[in-house]
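thread: overnight batch results

M.L. [08:02]
morning all. the overnight job finished for the chain we discussed friday. pasting input first so we're all looking at the same thing
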Amino acid sequence: MDKEHVKGAVDKASGAIKEAVGKATGDASLQAKGKIDKAKGEAREKLGDVKDALKDKGH
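M.L. [08:03]
and the structure it wrote out:
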């Protein structure tokens, strides 16, 4: 697991927590920030997947 995968997992976890707290407290802004963090985490994981694929091909 490279640093992009780790950062992505952290962003997704942080986003899930923010989203849950926002939902529980009725804070739409916090809930939206959580969704953004989760999306950012997924993007970082995809970037990590691309980097892994390039490494596997020898580039």
